[in-house]
Write a sequence for this structure.
């Protein structure tokens, strides 16, 4: 230390920025070529990726003479195995979304970004893309060399193959997505006949572009800068959440292993500073700096470090799934003592109950009654009062139905226009206008309730009933 | 600056304020640059495909040949195509046949709503509820009959019923007596009804005659419905309806639409009116 004012100032500045050197954000200038290391978590990751297999195969399943699961947007119907769900029942969808949102929250609160690390399409597709890259171009070092190397015939051949395969995966992704919304087999037929509709073509092209750019280029950058879930999930984590954690008590001070050095006199911690955990990380972060926004909790660094520890005969688990509390010697808080778990479970239960109720009470027919407002009533020549109603019969079955409309048993009531049953077309709303006449002396109030019933039997002979309340309005 | 830059090696531009606040020259994130170039390519692509740059004599048309009016016309043509199928069926059918077919009558009612709004609603109300001096057509009381063919005729040729003014023929007392009889719902019970030849038009039982368009005096519906119904009836007896010799006579004319609307449109309107609630 000197008394020179300039150097004192510099010391202050140095101190001020001492911590800033760790603050480093990967903005994607450098492509991350993560090393692939075999291990328990690697296997688990592949298994988890399998949840996407149904995405590709699902559309080809059949139920009776149609697709088992079909989101029929032009006809505003959703077919789920034997059930047809119409827009009227879509409130269940919001419950379903709520269920998954909370499931995401509960899993995150307990075990971190499980979705990000194992299931997210961004992670899975990137994983498959980099797997192909490794198969074609070799391990990270070779890849880097290839990228920097001159443009040789081999390089072009490898690159063309890789990008073609990427695009094919993108196309399959797009086609599979579209197949949920239209007949899957017909889609392929149309595809090979160059006969696809504009919407399908645009969707598939968008998917090709999206898959190619997101999984081929943006990769971890999508998690860093594009993904909203990544930001939300961070705040759901607390000190009791078990996430891949570097045990700094055990690892520090880190130091390289000395050849031939006796284990007994070792003054350093267990971490040998081999940087394997960084090398395998698909988002390029250093877990030893603690839990951070870039970490998608994929646990691949656990595999890497365990492999190193095994070679060196040190206990595994220097990086392991652990909560901060436990790491710092606190007792693990049991599940039932965590309010988050209670609240989340309650919401999960409620939404499940709602969906269950909805599915159990899916009516095959449903009527809506619209009372005509102008005029509210019409005086008839015999002095009775007539009200006009539009009855909308919704038929959710896959067969046309003959629906009989009846009004309640009010004395003197005449129902006009309902002698013939309504032919309710399958999966549609059919409207019928009816008139109700009540003699003036039988009318008890200016506005009295009027219940309409719709009744029909389906082809299996089951009686289907729907009722709806409306009003009958009369002059004072 | 380069020689005495106090912060060497950190890629700053040499612009330094307040000793240590300096402008760095770091590249933007890669995703940002991708998005940047992608949007420029997008604009170029858009300009090639779609109309974009205005000039002095016109604008660049774009190779897709897209225009706003073209898209609108396509939409109209699409609607016309759907309607065309129905309209073609309606052409050869009578109003009665249309009524017998639920699907076609629903279509007719939906498509005639606009016609009704344009031509009929001003007098008869938007849903046939009538208006002061104009009859309700949503009820089952018809001066000329509520069969769909009759309604069709009424629209095509118009109607103008006539009731002569009786102010000069009846005394005040007689008007009072007749009005009271009409109000009671059984005018035939009043001897004056026969004596003064009311029955000639309104029928021996007071139920009116649809061939003449004379009102049914026994039912609950009043052709000229006013708050003071008794005064209204007296007014009609005294001054009549459409009697040109009496300036205070009521005007009640249904204009003829045969020369304004096509036969097909009138047919649709007849179905619409019939279905308002009172067709017979
Ligand atoms: S730090 Fe470990 S767990 Fe986190 S993303 Fe990297 S490899 Fe996966
Ligand atoms: S892999 Fe394990 S031993 Fe090697 S640097 Fe990372 S934490 Fe240390």
């Amino acid at each position: 230390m000197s008394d020179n004012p300039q150097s004192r100032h510099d010391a202050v500045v140095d101190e001020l920025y001492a911590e800033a050197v760790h603050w480093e954000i990967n903005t994607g200038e450098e492509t991350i070529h993560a090393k692939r290391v075999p291990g328990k978590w690697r296997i688990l990751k592949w298994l988890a990726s399998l949840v996407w297999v149904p995405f590709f195969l699902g559309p080809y399943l059949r139920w009776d003479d149609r697709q088992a699961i079909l989101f029929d947007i032009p006809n505003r119907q959703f077919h789920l195995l034997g059930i047809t769900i119409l827009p009227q029942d879509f409130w269940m969808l919001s419950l379903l979304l709520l269920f998954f949102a909370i499931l995401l929250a509960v899993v995150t609160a307990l075990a971190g970004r499980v979705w990000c690390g194992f299931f997210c399409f961004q992670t899975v597709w990137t994983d498959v893309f980099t797997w192909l890259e490794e198969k074609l171009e070799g391990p990270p070092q070779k890849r880097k060399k290839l990228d920097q190397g001159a443009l040789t015939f081999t390089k072009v051949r490898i690159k063309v193959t890789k990008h073609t395969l990427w695009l094919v995966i993108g196309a399959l992704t797009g086609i599979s997505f579209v197949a949920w919304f239209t007949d899957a087999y017909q889609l392929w037929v149309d595809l090979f006949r160059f006969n696809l509709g504009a919407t399908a073509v645009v969707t598939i092209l968008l998917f090709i572009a999206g898959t190619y750019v997101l999984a081929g280029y943006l990769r971890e950058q999508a998690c860093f800068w594009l993904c909203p879930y990544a930001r939300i999930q961070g705040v759901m984590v607390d000190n009791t959440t078990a996430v891949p954690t570097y045990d700094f008590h055990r690892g520090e001070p880190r130091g390289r292993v000395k050849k031939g050095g006796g284990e007994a006199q070792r003054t350093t911690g267990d971490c040998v500073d081999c940087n394997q955990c960084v090398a395998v990380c698909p988002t390029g972060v250093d877990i030893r700096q603690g839990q951070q926004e870039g970490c998608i909790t994929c646990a691949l660094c656990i595999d890497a470090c365990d492999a190193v520890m095994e070679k060196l005969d040190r206990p595994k688990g220097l990086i392991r799934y652990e909560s901060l509390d436990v790491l710092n010697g606190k007792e693990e808080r049991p599940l039932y003592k965590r309010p988050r778990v209670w609240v989340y479970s309650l919401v999960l239960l409620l939404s499940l109950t709602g969906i269950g109720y909805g599915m159990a009470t899916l009516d095959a027919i449903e009527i809506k009654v619209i009372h005509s407002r102008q005029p509210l009533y019409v005086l008839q020549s015999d002095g009775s009062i007539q009200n006009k109603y539009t009855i909308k019969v919704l038929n959710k079955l896959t067969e046309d139905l003959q629906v009989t409309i009846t009004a309640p048993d009010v004395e003197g009531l005449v129902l006009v226009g309902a002698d013939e049953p309504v032919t309710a077309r399958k999966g549609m709303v059919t409207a019928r206008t009816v008139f109700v006449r009540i003699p003036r002396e039988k009318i008890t109030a200016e506005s009295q309730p009027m219940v309409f019933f719709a009744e029909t039997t389906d082809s299996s002979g089951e009686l289907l009933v729907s009722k709806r309340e409306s009003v009958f309005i009369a002059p004072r | 600056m380069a020689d005495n830059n106090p912060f060497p090696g950190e890629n700053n531009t040499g612009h330094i304020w307040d000793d240590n606040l300096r402008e760095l020259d770091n590249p933007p994130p890669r995703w940002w640059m991708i998005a940047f170039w992608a949007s420029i390519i997008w604009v170029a692509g858009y300009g090639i495909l779609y109309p974009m740059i205005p000039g002095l004599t016109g604008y660049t048309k774009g190779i897709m040949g897209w225009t706003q009016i073209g898209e609108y016309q396509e939409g109209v043509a699409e609607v016309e195509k759907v309607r065309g199928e129905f309209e073609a069926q309606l052409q050869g059918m009578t109003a009665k046949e249309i009524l017998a077919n639920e699907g076609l009558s629903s279509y007719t009612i939906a498509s005639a709503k606009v016609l009704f709004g344009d031509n009929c609603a001003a007098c008869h109300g938007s849903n046939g509820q009538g208006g002061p001096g104009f009859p309700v057509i949503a009820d089952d009381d018809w001066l000329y009959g509520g069969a769909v063919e009759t309604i069709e005729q009424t629209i095509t040729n118009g109607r103008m019923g006539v009731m002569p003014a009786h102010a000069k023929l009846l005394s005040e007392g007689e008007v009072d007596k007749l009005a009271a009889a009409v109000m009671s719902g059984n005018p035939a019970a009043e001897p004056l009804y026969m004596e003064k030849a009311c029955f000639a038009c309104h029928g021996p039982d007071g139920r009116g005659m649809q061939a003449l368009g004379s009102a049914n005096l026994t039912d609950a519906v009043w052709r000229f419905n006013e708050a003071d119904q008794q005064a209204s009836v007296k007014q009609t007896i005294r001054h009549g309806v459409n009697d040109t010799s009496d300036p205070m006579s009521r005007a009640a004319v249904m204009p003829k639409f045969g020369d304004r609307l096509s036969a097909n449109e009138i047919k649709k309107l007849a179905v619409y009116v019939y279905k308002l609630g009172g067709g017979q």
Observations:
- The first strand of chain B starts at residue 12 and ends at 17.
- Residues 1-66 of chain B form one domain.
- Strands of chain B lie at 12-17, 21-24.
